[in-house]
UniProtKB/TrEMBL annotation:
GO terms for cellular component: DNA-directed RNA polymerase complex. Residues 122-173 form the RNA polymerase sigma factor 70 region 4 type domain. Belongs to the sigma-70 factor family. ECF subfamily. This is DNA-directed RNA polymerase sigma-70 factor.
Length: 185
């Protein structure tokens, strides 16, 4: 995240704490897509993710007073979404494994996306093939551009765990992508 994004988050959070409904609405409009993408990656389906994120927003807005550093709003909110998704997965998991509960996010049509889309589609497919914890870590670090510390906060794991997941995920992605380039699957 850029310094401007952090500053905007901090300002919106501070204004929302005072009861400014426009600031709350702007904060929701600004960060909802990222929270929804994160929940979708973890849960594996968009509709259920929407429900989880809606419930998370209630907790997020009620808990703004507990947030100590307003500039860390996004990792804090992602952590709340992560916990809500975990609860939803546990609820759904009766009778099935976590790996089956989490599927790849919906991919755009390669034909509509343009020339670089095939590479992007291969990368998305490779990320989707990772174990759920690694896929979420990679997505937050590379796609959401969060720092290792912010990813740790968002996923509610130690910094060392994030680094280990990234190391293993990179190795698996390299193997998957090199295998695809050589005609292997």
């Amino acid at each position: 995240m850029s310094a401007k994004e952090r500053a905007l988050d901090a300002w919106l959070v501070a204004a929302a704490r005072t009861g400014d409904r426009r600031a709350m609405a702007r904060l929701v409009a600004l960060r909802d897509p990222r929270l929804l993408a994160h929940a979708t990656r973890l849960l594996g389906e968009r509709e259920g993710a929407r429900d989880v994120v809606q419930e998370a927003w209630i907790e997020i807005l009620r808990g703004l007073g507990r947030l100590r550093d307003e500039s860390l709003f996004l990792p804090w909110a992602l952590r709340i979404v992560t916990r809500r998704v975990a609860r939803e997965i546990r609820r759904r998991q009766r009778g099935r494994s976590l790996a089956e509960a989490v599927r790849a996010e919906v991919e755009p049509s390669v034909a509509e996306a343009g020339p670089g889309a095939l590479d992007a589609a291969k990368l998305r497919a490779a990320i989707a093939a990772l174990p759920p914890a690694q896929a979420a870590t990679v997505a937050l670090f590379y796609l959401e551009d969060l720092s290792v510390t912010e990813v740790a906060t968002a996923l509610d794991v130690p910094v060392g765990t994030v680094k280990t997941r990234l190391m293993h995920a990179r190795a698996k992605l390299r193997a998957l992508l090199e295998g695809n380039e050589n005609g292997q699957t």
